[in-house]
Amino acid sequence: MALIFHTNHINKRFVRRVFENTLINIDDYPYHFIKEWDIHIWPLSDTNTQFFEHIKTTSGQKINPDMPSGVTGLYRMDLYLHDSSNAFKERENSDRIMHEICHARLINTTHFVTGVHRNLHKRFTTTFWYWNRFKYTKFTLSIIDIRKYL
Ligand SMILES: [Zn+2]
Predict the structure, then answer these.
(1) How many structural domains does the chain have?
(2) Mean pLDDT score of the chain, rounded to an integer?
(3) Average pLDDT, stretch 107-114?
């Protein structure tokens, strides 16, 4: 898995930890996922609404340039996130990252879209620590429970 950052301010350590913790907690460490996927992280300001106008996003709605969104295809994910390390923005970012990973894990199955969207409120949580500027910070990550489909 290559995480390719096109951002300036986002906390890369935080984004990596969200990826790792989502993947590990959904099932055993998925090596094929790690090996094959390229993940591009873009700032919200790069959201090209005209380009995406006719694309049905895996976020389940039209792309809104004010809200984190994502597009997941085979082996490629584009995430448009708040380019910020503000705690509230990080929470919104984490939810979108987790959501798109769930789609990615179900790609090429009949559950690709519905397996995520029908279970938006069936969640479990995990906590992790990450380095935030000067100190370790604890974060509780809420994950959509798609485990029954794997
Ligand atoms: Zn979705």
Answers:
(1) 1
(2) 89
(3) 93
